[in-house]
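From the methods appendix. Each design record in this collection lists the tokenized structure first, followed by the designed amino acid sequence. Records were kept in a plain field format so they could be parsed without special tools. The example shown here is representative of the layout used throughout.

RECORD:
FOLD TOKENS (297 positions):
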């Protein structure tokens, strides 16, 4: 998407296409997220994850457990993250008269963190719904829908539980914002030069997004693992205390008990989710905005 085309599209359409593109992309990659969450939490629940066992017990359809919460998350997160990024970037450009690398990184980190905090209730719901089927029957929460999940969390644990794991979630989103801004455009240019790809073409977007996604998946996986454990945990039945209280404490506790690499359980599907969502979202957003300009303006 060119800078001129972004300027032509009204702000409500910028936010609307960002949210719609995020939702459409999430519907493609949600199974990767489910696998990543289940593989990542398996060791903390005392078992070794097996795709075959999961399919045998719950069927392939269980890969879409929590899809309602995932869509709700994208409705808030993608809309706010990309909509606010373009709004803040353009406002900063008008103020400074330029858009340089540092301003893009700063805006990417800020808007990523803001969007993550706003969407944290849906993220907690998505983690719990995606993983519930893997718990022993006596420990399952048996959420029926995203609305049931949201209602029960508030009723049973209090509104503050919506932000369980919000710190690593916000930290991860800020890192994603930084790494996407810092590497995505650079990789598009690199692949265009190396393989004579047309910049912003589907092959160019795919190669750049998957390479950028690999880098930020490696960097952010410990934060993702911390968020999953904090969002999914239950208070100790005897003391009422939570095992995981902060990002650093969670990383230290997991590393001491299970080894540092346990934080990377589920890395391949996590990478598939990160890279895949970036690819499909940018493609869908670009198509939506191009069609808006073509048919509605």
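DESIGN:
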């Amino acid at each position: 998407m060119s800078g001129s085309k972004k300027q032509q599209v009204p702000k409500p359409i910028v936010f609307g296409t960002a949210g719609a593109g995020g939702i459409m992309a999430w519907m493609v990659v949600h199974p990767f997220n489910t696998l990543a969450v289940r593989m990542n939490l398996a060791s903390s629940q005392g078992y070794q994850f097996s795709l075959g066992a999961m399919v045998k017990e719950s069927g392939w359809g269980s890969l879409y457990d929590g899809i309602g919460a995932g869509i709700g998350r994208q409705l808030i997160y993608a809309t706010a993250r990309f909509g606010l990024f373009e709004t803040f970037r353009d406002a900063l450009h008008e103020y400074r008269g330029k858009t340089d690398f540092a301003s893009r990184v700063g805006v990417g980190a800020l808007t990523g963190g803001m969007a993550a905090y706003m969407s944290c209730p849906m993220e907690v719901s998505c983690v719990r719904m995606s993983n519930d089927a893997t718990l022993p029957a006596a420990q399952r929460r048996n959420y029926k829908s995203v609305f049931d999940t949201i209602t029960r969390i508030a009723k049973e644990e209090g509104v503050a539980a919506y932000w369980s794991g919000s710190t690593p979630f916000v930290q991860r989103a800020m890192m994603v914002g930084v790494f996407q801004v810092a590497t995505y455009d650079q990789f598009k240019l690199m692949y265009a030069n190396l393989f004579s790809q047309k910049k912003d073409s589907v092959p160019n977007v795919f190669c750049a997004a998957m390479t950028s996604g690999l880098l930020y998946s490696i960097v952010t996986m410990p934060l993702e693992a911390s968020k999953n454990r904090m969002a999914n945990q239950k208070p100790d039945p005897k003391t009422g205390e939570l095992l995981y209280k902060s990002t650093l404490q969670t990383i230290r506790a997991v590393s001491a008990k299970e080894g540092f690499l346990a934080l990377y359980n589920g890395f391949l599907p996590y990478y598939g989710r990160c890279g895949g969502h970036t690819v499909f979202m940018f493609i869908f957003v670009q198509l939506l905005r191009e069609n808006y300009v073509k048919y509605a303006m």
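APPENDIX NOTE: Confidence is low (pLDDT under 50) at residues 1-7.
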